[in-house]
Amino acid sequence: MSLAERRRCVTYLRNQYEISERRACQAIQLNRSSYRYVGQQELVDAAYEEVVRLSERYPYFGYRKIYDLMRGSWSISRETVRLIRRREGLQVIKKRRKRKVLGMTTQWVNQARYPNHVWSYDFVFDQTEDARQLKCMTVVDEYTRQGFEITVGRSLTATDVIRVLEKLFEEHGRPVCLRSDNGPEMVSKAVQTWLKEKHVDTHYIDPGSPWQNAYCESFNSIFRSTCLDRWLFGSMTEARVVINQWLEEYNTIRPHGSLGGMNPKHYLQRWNEENTNQQPEILTA
Predict the structure, then answer these.
(1) Residue 201: beta bridge partners?
(2) What distance in Å separates the CA atoms of residue 136 and residue 134, rounded to the nearest whole number?
(3) I need a labelling partner for 191 at 20 to 30 A (CA). Which of 56, 96, 106, 156 fits?
(4) Rounded (5°) CA angle 219-242-161
């Protein structure tokens, strides 16, 4: 905020709320001497007014362009134009960063307590040999670390997300909560409305905080380092075959340190055996 703008704010506060100069200056964080200061030379002439008029008419023109507009008709230097604009607070408005639409969290879950309690899903990108994009949707059970599905396509929309989740709900039962970032496919009204109809809560992590979706990020990291980075896919069909084989190996062979050295399938079987009576009711789609 320029000095001129701060002065105008102080004047507005004094007139609108009838407060003292001291309090108004404290609110705007402006020294009272700066607010009262008046330059020794008041050069408000026709050229001065023309600079102000052009700057207000073309708010995205800098002082150089305003000077170019006036150069043929007015006797004024470029530095004078700059100082006038600075004094009046007429600098070019900086581009503001657009706010991203965020999803609505309906349940805050820190850690999954049993299978089908919390699922998380995300997207991983790669490309085929012809430099065309591959988009992979990963879905993980945070408690068992089981990878339910890796859907591969050139482009996956909110409609595809609903189709994949509906298929998984039918096969594994629906979770209590779904955790994800604020990607456009996840925060779309269609996905949020569909999940609400299925009575599935959502937990959207804070923007720029991937560690809040740690289980899915860990799965994606393993997926990339042990599969995507090792293969150069010639086609999307080849990618789907290789990725499905990798997912089967991940779920049935690969030991997990967090699961006591067991693979996700073995861990789920053991949990079911030990918690037959205490197992929560599995929700069905």
Answers:
(1) 177
(2) 6
(3) 96
(4) 55
Residue 204 backbone dihedrals phi, psi, to 5 degrees: -95, 125
CA dist 16 and 169 (Å) reads: 59
The model's pLDDT over 199-213, given as tens digits with 9 standing for 90+, comes to 999 999 888 888 888
Q: For 13-39, what is each residue's pLDDT tens digit?
A: 999 999 999 999 999 999 999 888 876
From edge to edge, which strands make up the β-sheet containing 177-180? 147-153, 133-141, 118-127, 177-180, 201-204
Instruction: Taking each helix axis as running N to C, give the angle between helix 214-226 and helix 236-252, from 0 to 180 degrees, rounded to the nearest 10.
Output: 120
Instruction: At 181, give phi and psi (nearest 5°).
Output: -85, -165
Question: C-alpha angle with apex 82: 81 to 87, nearest 5 degrees?
Answer: 100
pTM as predicted:
0.64
108: its two tokens = 């805050």
Q: Which domains are assigned to the chain?
A: 3-88 (no CATH), 118-274 (3.30.420.10)
In the chain, what's the furthest Cα-to-Cα distance?
Answer: 92
Token pair of 162 as six digits: 């609903």
- What is the rounded distance in angstroms from the CA atom of residue 207 to the CA atom of residue 77? 47
Contact 58, 66 (CB under 8 A): yes
Q: Exposed e or buried b for every residue in 41-53, given b needs 16+ CB within 10 A? A: eeeeeebbebbbe
Residue whose pair of structure tokens reads 């699961």 in the numeric block? 259
Are the C-beta atoms of 108 and 205 separated by less than 8 Å? no
Other beta carbons within 10 Å of 75: 8
